[in-house]
Amino acid sequence: MKAILSSSHSIKSPKFATLTVMAATCAMLLSAPVNAAETDATATAVPSAMDSSKRVIRLARPNAAISPAQANTAQTSLPAASASNSQPTNAQMMTPAAAPVMNGTTRVYEPGPMTATGIDLRSGQLPNIPTPQVQLSDMSFVKTVLIPQQKGLGTDKLDVSLLDDFIADVSPNARHYPPNFPNRSQRHYTREKIKVLADWIEPYAKSPDASFDVLLRAAKLNGMGRNLDLGSDYTVRGGQYVDRAIKLQPDSGEANFLYGMMLSEGGGFKEGQKYLDRAVALGYTEAEQSLAQSDLLSDRRANALERLRRLEGQYPNNTVIPQQIKLVEEGKFYIWDIPAPDISVKPGA
C-alpha cells in the first residue's frame, strides 16, 4: 500500500508544478495592462478639453532604455518555478529585454509666430502651376460722410458714406417720374437696394428728435421708392420726412424742392408750386424744371416752353435742358423721359 501511495504521489508532482507555472503566467499577463497604465500615468498630462487650441501628439519610441525600477519590477513579476525550467516560458518572452518597450512622451505644439513675408508660391512648391497675376484698375474711393443722428449738440454720428454715394449714383434715373434705367437689371437692383437702405434709416428718421440730415436722406430714399412703385408706404413716409425737414430748416432749397417735386409729380400741382417757387428763389435750378413739368401736365405747354428756353439761356452748358425742350416741342408730357445715364448698381453691394 505504501508503494502504491508513493507511486501515486510521484505521478501527481509534475502536474502540480505545471499548474503552478500556468497560474503564475496568467497572473502576470493579467497584471501587464495595469502596470503599463500606471507607468503611462507618470507621463506629461494631456491638456484638457478646455485647452482645445493646442494639438497634442503622443510619440511612441521603440527600444527605448528603461529605468532600473522598471526592470526590477519586471523581474520580480516572474514566478519562481520558471527558474528551474530550461525552456523559455510566456512570462520570459514578455520581459523588456525580449520585446520593445513603448515609452510614451507628450509634446504640445503651439502655433508659431506669423511672418511678414509668408510663403512664396514661385519657389517650386507648386510645380507646373502658373503664377497668379493680379491687376487693379478703375479704383474709386467713397468720401466719408458723418451726419448727426439727432438735432442738437453732442449727438451721436451716423456714417452715411455709402448711402450718399448710392443716392448720387441713381438720382438721375429715379429721382423724377417716370424713372428711366438703361436696362431692367439695373432697375431691379436699384429697387432692392432702396428697400434695404430705407429699412436701415427708418428707425433714425422715426425718432421725434431726428436731425435734418437724417430726415432729408430718408425723404430722398422713400421718394425714389415711390417712383419705382414700391408701395404707398414709401409715398407717405417720403412726404412726412421732408415736411419735418422743412420745419427744421425752412430756408433749405433742396428740402423745398423735394417737397414741391413730390407733390406736383403726384398730381398736387397747386400745393407743390409754392414749395418749388420757394426753391427757385433760394437758387435751386432743378426746381425750375419741375415747374415746367407742372405747367406741361396742367395744359400750359407754352409756359413750359418759355420757362425751359429761359433756363437754356441761363445755363448754356446744361445738356439736359435742350433734350427737354425737344420733348415738349414733340408733344410729349414728361420732360424727364430722356435717355438715362448708364449706372452700375451691383446686387447685394
In short:
The chain is mainly alpha-helical. Helices cover 53% and strands 5% of the residues.
Which structural traits does this protein have?
349 residues, 5% strand, 4 strands, mainly alpha, 53% helix, two-stranded antiparallel sheet
Description:
- The chain has 349 residues and is mainly α.
- Helix content is 53%, strand content 5%.
- The protein is built from 12 helices and 4 strands; from the N terminus they run αβααβββααααααααα.
- The chain has helices spanning 2-40, 68-76, 90-93, 161-174, 184-206, 212-227, 232-248, 253-265, 269-281, 285-297, 301-314, 320-329; strands spanning 55-59, 105-109, 146-148, 157-159.
- The strands form 2 sheets. It has a two-stranded antiparallel sheet. Strands 3-4 form a two-stranded antiparallel sheet.
- Strand 3 and strand 4 (157-159) form a beta hairpin.
- Helix 9 (269-281) runs antiparallel to helix 10 (285-297) and helix 10 (285-297) runs antiparallel to helix 11 (301-314).
- The longest helix is centred in the first third of the chain and has 39 residues, at 2-40.
- The chain is globular.
- The termini are far apart.
- Residues 1-12, 29-86 and 88-102 have low confidence and may be disordered.
